[in-house]
Amino acid sequence: MSTTRKRVYGYLAEFKSASALYKAAEKVRDAGFSKWDCHSPYPIHGLDSAMGLKRSILPWLVFFGGSTGTLTAFSLAYGTQVLLYPTVVQAKPVNIFTVPAFFPVMFELTILFSGFTVLFGLLALMKLPRFNHPLFASKQFHRATDDAFFIAIEARDPKFSPEATKALLENIGGTNIELVEEED
Amino acid sequence: MATATETSQRQGPKLPVLKREKLILNGRSYHWITERICGVLENRQPFLWWLLFVPSAIIAAIGVGGGLFHLVSTGVGVWGNTNRVMWGWPIVNFVFWIGIGHAGTLISAILFLTRQNWRTSINRAAEAMTIFAVMCAGIFPAFHVGRVWMVWFLAPIPNANGIWQNFKSPLLWDVFAVSTYFTVSLIFWYLGMVPDLATIRDRCKPGLRKILYGLFSLGWRGGNRQWSHYEMAYLLLAALSTPLVLSVHSVVSFDFATSVVPGWHTTIFPPYFVAGAIFGGFAMVLTIMIPARFIYGLQDMITMKHIDNMAKIILLTGTIVGYAYLMELFVAFYSGAKFEMEAFKYRIAGPFNWAYFWMMGLNVLSPQIFWFKKCRENLWVVMAVAMCVNCGMWFERFVIIVTTLSRMWLPGDWKYFSPSGQDQFLFVGTIGMFLTLFLLFLRFLPCINIAEVKWTLLESDPHFDDHHDHPDHGVTEEAAYQHEIHASSAKG
């Protein structure tokens, strides 16, 4: 006989279409919630502004990642070809004026480092990977990757209240409203 | 629904709005798309899958596994390198495979940037093709170094001899270009697949499958706070891959063009190689997707419109390639360079002229029948042309590399080249390896981008419901893409 304590994660409400989700998201945003999210099987165009999300900062990370790649390639080529192991090949100079011959490698490493920055930057911004999430305890949430549209409002949001938030979700057209609990 | 609708509510002249073909036919739902694509890997594989898989796997095991074992244990001499053509044959195969990969990146990156939404049905399989083709390509340069355990010398790693790679050499550029291409293509392919792996995870019963798909889907929940960053990442990768794919085959062509060998030393090589790569790659996409579409019943997602578009790209790039062939001849003539002229005379009238004419016929003439709509609509014709192009592009590399090398500066080197049995073995083995990997991909991973295909449906637009009773009803109904809906509703 065991008693498992459960902690409330928040409310999960289903919406019938992308349009309904979009309109509901605008209302949740205007109600002043901050810890909530819209779940959909595909990215919905314009939902960022409906949720009041800012533009992703990923391009800035990638800019710095890519620049690191350019500098790495230049240092590698210049260091080895001019400083460490100067060899005259194809009558090309062994000083800074040989730099055009380094451009292809500089270009490729810029792309390579940018690619890695996209991968790891994205994972960091999405806070993934993770093994589990309270939402996976929901019985209906698996449909979010198939054909269902959900809004989840977390209990740790300062505006959250068990009754008022449920009423809000009902008012804006949410169905199958579920209180998602995680095992503590 | 009429084929042309009048926009009655607007001022000014009444222009008919042409109906755009839908990307997903028969009004399929989100759930149908999930079911059909996941069904490919969840259901038992059809007999035809086994019929293709078993021989491919055997050919791969004997050709690549056995071939490489023999090569490494005996020495690179089994490739018949006692000829002036030297590593010509492995390099023909390397360029052939790496070129095939380019269509995958073109579809996933360039068509994404140009908002060609029809790409969504074919990009996943085409990207998989890229990865597998680059893997096949990599075998040849990795093993042609002879002592393959010394292959780390390709990378700039400090060593006891104090020797460093020559960064001014196109061969080293190639090492960086190809390895970057493989890595970035893999990242692009995998990140694109994460939401779909989550779809499969959510359909699995608890067990090993669920754990594995769960691990690789990274805990994806489809929240818009994730999608927002994800969309940005996808755009960035597309923007990075576009110049990358153009650079890779340009660098491959530099291997030839920067030498002083007649027949190679031309400035047309980079664009000519890139066009040829896309041409050959699209042919391979058609070669593998037409049967897959038929076997798994994906006709509503990979429609005749998709095949028509790909046939048109083959026609375009095939014509560019034909132009390049003729331009090479013209420049050889017009330059007045004696050795350049001799090189081309040798190609056309020398002992390898059979390869030259196969190349011309298969690459330049065969795609020209795609000018006719009837031919683009007949899958047998499309498949036959795709096969012709696959072979033709291999002959192109053979002509460029082997013909040229067998007739270089020293007359004492001039000799006819025939590949050794081992050479042929390994090439056939890589074909088996490519097919094996592709069939395994169909078996274990979603072969169509589920999330993106859903996104192309009309009802995926967040304003779809609003426009249902809108005065511009006709316009929004006809517009197949959400971006166009915004544009048309803003006017109306």
From TrEMBL, chain A:
This is DUF3341 domain-containing protein. It comes from the Bacteria. Keywords: Membrane, Transmembrane, Transmembrane helix. InterPro entries: ActD. The chain crosses the membrane at residues 57-81, 101-125. The keyword DNA damage does not apply.
From TrEMBL, chain B:
The keyword Cell membrane applies. Keywords: Cell membrane, Membrane, Transmembrane, Transmembrane helix. The chain crosses the membrane at residues 47-71, 91-113, 125-150, 170-191, 233-252, 272-292, 313-334, 354-372, 379-405, 425-445. It is a multi-pass membrane protein. InterPro entries: NrfD-like. Pfam families: NrfD (PF03916). GO terms for cellular component: plasma membrane. The keyword Cell membrane applies. It is found in: Cell membrane. It comes from the Bacteria. Belongs to the NrfD family. This is Molybdopterin-containing oxidoreductase family membrane subunit.
